[in-house]
Amino acid sequence: MSVKLDYANLNVPSKWRNLPPPPGFSSSSTGSSKGTSKSSTAVTASQEALKEKRAWDVAIAPAKSLPMQAFMLYMSGGGVQIFSMGIVFMLLFSPFKNLASTNAAFASFAPAKSDANSLSTLPLQKIVYFLCNMLTLALGLWKCRQMGLLPTGTGDWLAFETRASPPEIFLH
Amino acid sequence: MRALQLCLLVVLGFFPAVFALHESEAGVVDWHKPLIGVPLTYSHSLSPTLHRFSAGRLRKSTQSIILTATEANVLAAVNPVDGELVWRFAFEPEDPIVSYRAHGDVVCVLSGPGGSTFRTFETANGNLIAERRLHKPSFGRLFEPVDLGVHMSFVDSNFTNLSPTTDLFVLTDGYTVRRLDSGSGRIKWEWSAEDQGSLVVYSRIARTSSAVYVIGLAKSFASYTLHVHALSPSTGEVISNAHIPSSIYNGLTDFLLISDATKEDDTPHIVWLEKGSMRHIMLTPQLNEKSLVIKGVTYKSILNIGLNERGYFVALKDDGAARVMRIDAEGTRVNPAFEFPESESSDRYSDSLYAGGLDKDGIPHIGRVYWTHVFQTAGAQIFSPLSAHGKGMITGFTFPFATNLHGIIHHIAFDAAQPAETVVLGRFVLTTGTGAVQLWQQDKVQWTREESLSEIKVTEMIELPEKKTVTSHINVENETMSARLSRQLLDMKFPSYLISFVKRFATGSYASVSTSAAAEGDSAESLFRDEFGFRKVIVAATGRGNVFGIDSGNGAILWSRILGLGVAAERGGHHVPFKMFVTKTVSDGETPRVALVTQRLSKSGLVDAVVFNLDALTGEDVLGKSSTHDVLNGEEVVPGEILDVFMLENDRTIVLVDKYLQIHLYPDNKETRTTFESLASKLHFPLKATDRILGHQISPKPRAISGKFNAYSTWTMALPAGEEILSQFSPPSEPIASFGKVLGDRRTLYKYLNPAITGLITTSRGTEQPTCGLYVVDGGKGTVLYHAVLPSVNGACNIKAAMAENWLVYIYYDDEISSAVQAKGYRAVSVEFYEGKQINDKTRSSEASIYSNTSANVQIYQQGFVFPYEVTTMTTSKTKFGIATKDLIVANRRGQIQTLPRRIFDPRRPKGKPTTEEQEEMLFQYDPLIPDDSRRVISHNYKFARIDRIITSPAVLESTSLVFAYGLDLFSSRIAPSKTFDVLNENFNKAQLVLTIGGLAAAIMIARPRVKRKRLMERWYHSQ
Hints:
The complex is a heterodimer of chains A (172) and B (1024). Chain A has 172 residues and is mainly alpha-helical.
């Protein structure tokens, strides 16, 4: 079995928790060694809260960038050009990329006791994250539609249409 | 300065690619063959003549020219040396040529009823010198033949003294004589017979220095008597007039007027036949001479050989033997001079043709041409009356006239050269039964003009097979592995392929779209398709009963065949080409074939439908029933009149409908019958009557007695009372690339693509105000999809219409003005048909049947435009897959062919500034006037006299459409309506591309090891 170093998790596995600190190292800034066990629970709780807060930040990050992206879309214009296409592709692909790596994005904020790689950890944040990404995607699709890239009209399917010849034969 | 030049270059570079034909392409991508029409042969004043006139510097040398009036109402001059057209003048149809006369440097022509218009042309170049209306055409008397009652005679008819312009006496309308100045057409005096209402019709003028004689025929019981007026040449006063006791039975041919203009004291004689005896009378101003009889022999007819002003003519004896007659030296008597040997009627020879001609020194010679049935060759004899010290000399020869290609000889014109005292060389201009004009110098044919091509009735352009590399595999099945490998390696010809590739690449000698499609060398030998399929065979059937195969690359005639008359050959008759079908194409893996359906009208009044089956590349009879050197034998399929002919697309069986509505199949065998029976109940076709269209279907089973299928009528679309169908048109069957038109908002207008659609142009004369009509009818069930009532110009309906897919364009003349801001002029209307009642409506496959209720739902968009000129014919371009846009190709009255882009004719062009959505559809603002863009003239500076029809045919390149126009001119070119998008531009910088790729490859080769080394160094020294 290979040893895996998990730097992402602040809750260091208990194997090294009971080791004495190196000489001259004080475990807390306020500094008494007596209150270690008492204060450590408080620290853990505050860290948990901090992680949750950070997880919410990550969850709504795509929504935060929406105004910026909308502005970029506006600036790139309605024509089908290399810039507008680049932005539209980014808008269309980044939600899927983000959603595919949802667990990785939230792994570092997973509560200590839970499995960081499970979908069920931080469910609320993940749902919000999903919705925000959908918003980005919707923005991309809206732009595609504006540019006439969505095959919504009958004209877009005209090339695939076939016609059966009439059952009668007309002689000229 | 340099900067300015640079600026200019940049600006010029931004100019859009011009559609126009480049000067360098003229004559390379196109060709033009001006024709003159088949020469008229029934009258001496219209038929071909060889005319000699002084030419060159100081007017010392002389030059001869062939002049003729033709069936196409053209006066033409052809160079006898090479047969090239020197000039031609096309008269309007309502102004027929009735007589022409050449004299030195001028050719004078009378045209119109009774000779109403007088024109003078320069002989050398056809410049119109003078034109004068002599009487109103509507007052002119119509004669049969047209040149009766019309005659011209030059005052100065002495050959040796040719003044540039001279006066001439002109007889018109059978009773008026004028003295005109040929250079200006000014009338010096005019005389009209007093008794214009009488039965005397004057038909000839003879002039001497002392009097002008006007000779007419007065109708009496059963015969004609001669009547002569003698007029003063300077004032036109009547000196005397007299009735000459005579009785002429055939007023047209049995009298003629001879004189010897070379003599100073010229005395004309009238010669006529009276009950087999020839009489003549000398004309003097007092008209007091008595007529004399030429005794001894009875004559059958007298022939004018064009030397009647030199005192010669030919008389045929009772047994057909031809005598040359002349005025004697004293000018008082007419005597036989010579009798042509073996000229009597015989079953060994055909009847002979006689013609007189002058040599360079003005000495007359008389030529005779006949066909010998025994030797199957044409014979010629030349009689030179002044040779051999005035005793006369005869020379003769035979020449190999190709009767299998040109039919029989109808007319000869003749002149001669006498290089030595005893040598006479003859030059014959033959007009043949197939409309060919040939010049034979002794026994060598110098050139042939196939003038029947001016009467093309049906034509098809046929794709040529690809050139195949020769593969001769002997024993392919039994060869060993190693043998096969080595053979295939040899077949690959790798080094030579590589060499040719490198050569092609380096020199850039690719097949280019602007190169000539004609093959180098002998074109008949290498009948293969060129790279882009620009070369095709045009198979054309003419009204003269012959078929031609023409190379579309250069207009050369590859083969020609005469349509045999079959059983009607005995009585005579002619073929009227009906339709032509391509029965085998190159894609069938065989040589292409065509089937020509004609109606054979025999002299006995019988009508048959005949099918000729031809190999399109060689003109050979596919069934092998007729030999290469004989006329083509057709197959009589219907013994009677046919109403229409169709071809079934699947097995290419030809279906003929006779007037009893019986169906005849060609080829008629068990296989085609079974196929036809399986299809019979599905077939629908409309037949046209004068005032209605009748839809027809075919009985599913053949009649028990005749074994033939019968058609029966299912519906009738009757026009309003008094309205008649003038012509019918329908869109060509061609591949359809797209079923609809996408709008700016990406909705679709689905094209109305009914395969049964047909159009009618009608006229209604019954009403007080004559109008014209245009109908578009569903030929499957008779629904009128579109109807327009158009103004008629003086009762005529000159409406031109063209249709392609769902697009109809028609052009008419609008002379109705309802307000001051309107103007008379030509109008073009563009109509587009779309399916359903609104946008996005479409016909489902299940609704494609004619019995579906929705199939008559059609939306129509239409828009009118002002058209800049009169159009004689128009069509649309046709490409292989129908992807390239369609151009309208029009032939206009100015003798040009022009293309007009479809975009101009879009009926949905917005009236205001186009919105973004409309811009997306490439619509631009409506402008009522169709621009007359001279850059879009594809006919270069060729001047067409008359274009009757234009046909288009796809090339192998999708972008390009081949155009063939015929009428009095033949013209072929190619057009690329969407530009040649499928071929690399010729200006494409290949060197730059190669250099760029080569440079990049070199850069990669240099950079790659260096980058590799650098990466390695980085790993060692910088990354931990």
